[in-house]
Amino acid sequence: MLQIILLLLPAVVSDQWSVCYPPSICAARGSNVTINCTFTYPPENDIKQVLWCSMRSNNGKCHYQPYVYDSEANNSQSFQYIGDKTSDCSLLISNINQAHSGEYRFRFITNKKDGRWTGDPGVNISVHDLRVSMCRSRENGSTIPGDSLILTCTLNCSGSLAEVQWFKNGDPIQQSEPVLTFSRITAEDSGNYSCSLRNFKTTVSEEFSIYIEDVAGSPTVLIIVVSLFSLVFITAAVMLIRSKSCLVNQAYTNLPEAKDVQQEDEVEYSSVNIKPKEMLQM
Ligand SMILES: *[C@@H]1O[C@H](CO)[C@@H](O)[C@H](O)[C@H]1NC(C)=O
Ligand SMILES: *[C@@H]1O[C@H](CO)[C@@H](O)[C@H](O)[C@H]1NC(C)=O
Ligand SMILES: *[C@@H]1O[C@H](CO)[C@@H](O)[C@H](O)[C@H]1NC(C)=O
Ligand SMILES: *[C@@H]1O[C@H](CO)[C@@H](O)[C@H](O)[C@H]1NC(C)=O
Ligand SMILES: *[C@@H]1O[C@H](CO)[C@@H](O)[C@H](O)[C@H]1NC(C)=O
Ligand SMILES: *[C@@H]1O[C@H](CO)[C@@H](O)[C@H](O)[C@H]1NC(C)=O
Ligand SMILES: *[C@@H]1O[C@H](CO)[C@@H](O)[C@H](O)[C@H]1NC(C)=O
């Protein structure tokens, strides 16, 4: 019986002083991140001071300054305490960036002697840039019209993203899926693509450039065009050789005809009535 009580006792005691954090947090640079947090302590205590420290700047155990948030000091605008002095210790980090990556711990101090507690270990936050990655049907060489191509908006430390906003040359496009599919790409799809989280335009990724050569410039089309031209050329050449003698005559008769038209114009201007018959004799 006594053994059971002794086994239970430590659990009860540590339950009284505790800080509960979420599992590690993956954040997109430029977003606002909430660390949802709760804390408990023995009932006879009243909370006097609440503190948050970053283990990046606080090399100790969070017992001393610097703090990213201190309820008894002026704090950076990036860190807002959205909790209270009873059980909610949530912290909001706005416009987060890579320099905010690291471990964070919550500390609280009560009105009782030795009434102080730090939640150790804390919560890890890793901050990454959103990125556009590409997957395409053609392995080698440049993408040509008709190929399929997929752009994906990714955050290195996270699984698939929920709602995103895509941009083409900086202008928003109607697509909230993190995957942008071009089943048959065209030259008009060329452009600089980027993405951001739906509600945080500040998380916008670097631009990803897609260049699709115009139809006439694409190798397949080029080959067809070149082949067609060759065919016409060869045919023309063959015909030219076969009808060489004929052609001389034709050229002779064609020449006056051409002059005919010219002369007819002159006829109108000068109002002299000259018959085409005379012209043909020239
Ligand atoms: C924190 O809690 C709020 C509401 O309680 C919820 O909307 C939000 O998604 C939570 N954040 C995380 C990172 O779990
Ligand atoms: C906070 O800032 C105000 C004015 O900016 C100043 O009067 C006050 O002393 C500061 N408080 C602390 C704890 O630094
Ligand atoms: C992010 O937090 C800042 C500071 O609290 C606030 O001004 C801004 O509106 C927030 N952005 C969003 C999208 O909630
Ligand atoms: C946070 O990350 C550091 C370094 O990667 C690791 O040593 C530590 O155990 C992590 N802490 C938590 C609470 O996950
Ligand atoms: C792509 O090129 C690499 C080397 O340049 C070659 O090993 C590979 O077989 C090519 N793949 C295709 C599908 O042509
Ligand atoms: C993404 O993570 C991998 C390893 O997980 C790393 O090698 C790479 O540099 C990271 N990329 C970015 C952009 O953070
Ligand atoms: C895309 O970006 C490149 C370099 O970043 C720039 O030279 C090009 O003009 C951009 N294209 C468009 C259509 O904005």
From TrEMBL:
Pfam families to which the protein is assigned, alphabetical: Ig_2, V-set
Swiss-Prot/TrEMBL keywords: Membrane, Signal, Transmembrane, Transmembrane helix
Domain Ig-like, chain residue ranges per copy: 121-211
Signal peptide interval: 1-16
Domain of life per record: Eukaryota
Membrane-crossing residue ranges in chain numbering: 221-241
Protein name: ADAMTS-like protein 1
